[in-house]
Specification:
The chain has about 400 residues and is an alpha/beta fold. It contains 13 helices and 11 strands. The strands form 2 sheets. The protein has a 7-stranded mixed β-sheet with strand order 1-7-6-5-4-2-3, with helices on both faces. Helix 8 links the parallel strand 4 and strand 5.
Length: about 400
Amino acid sequence: MASRDKLTAAAAGACVALVAARWLRRRAPYDGTQDEVRAIVRPNIRKLEPYRCARDDYEEGVLLDANENAYGACVTPSGSTPTSTLVKAALAFDLHRYPCPHQKRVKDRVAAFRGVRRANVFVGVGSDEAIDLLFRVFCEPRTANVVVTPATYGMYKVCAATQDVEVRTAELRPESFAVDVEAVENACDANTRLVFLCSPGNPTARQISREVVERLLGSAKLRRSIIVVDEAYVDFAPEATTAPLVSKYPRLVVLHTLSKAFGLAGIRCGTAIGSPQTVHFMNAVKAPYSINKMTSSLAAEALSAPSLAALKAVVQDTLAERGRLAEKLRALPYVCTVFKSDANFLLVRLKDHAKAKPLYTKLAESGVVIRYRGDQANLSGCVRVTIGTPADSDALLALLAKVAPGFGL
């Protein structure tokens, strides 16, 4: 009897130890036995069962599985206006049926264009959806923190505030706007989950070198962090995308959008390129059917061979106009600096910093809208000017000649 009791006690002890070990595995933010991306994912997200929508299984046949309106879209085009023409074209997409959630055609073309595999590609509602999902996948509210490099894109802070995540800063170096790697490392700790690098930067317009990105990925202080390189403007930049590095670095995520060089801001389509594990968790958290049929079709066409040829021509025209406008702006007596640009915009600093915001306001009220950026780190007296057509540039220059004297410029 005594030996049986000992065996029972030993079995009970082993059971308790097993339960405790399983509990610790669920709670531990980092488990060295797992994939390095999975180890950073929030514990509750690791256990998440992704929502399976109707189109995950079947897309053809008599579809009686998704509670759709089988009679068709209740939209009737009227007249011959551009809107009615658009509606008629849209109805050809069978809008009463849900879209395919997998976006295979878009992903295949993105993968070919960016030098990765389909499994590395996430498609979202602009790159902003991807940014939001990265917070939700990796950042434990009130515990995690993220690092940004001001001056930079403001959406990172918005998403952090929404998820109740601390934001730490590592300012870019003044004037050169280079990433201060040491400052980034010093800003990080064991709870840093995301490090955002905007390349080319918005509003700095400077591209971050591949060497800097790899240095951060190899940093021991950042081994528990996802490095996010936001390349919204990379198609205008001198260096190629860092996207192919995801095959070497599982903790790298690269963001792109069709809103800039592709000229499709209105369809709201962006991509995140990362390890298959990262893409898996982003898809697990995202809303079903977030990409509609028309967006998907336009995105796929934008990545076709003829469209990519058109993209190349537009980029060349934009860069030529960027050079012309930069030269004109540098010649203005009240302009201090037109900073080097790797994007489709110019960052311009006025000699009299206090005049930058009033001048911006006057230009907008007179019909030419630029962006005041003088309230950001190291950008006192700065405005940001998007490169438009030559006619757009001429309109800006003509209006500056008209209104600048009123400010004593």
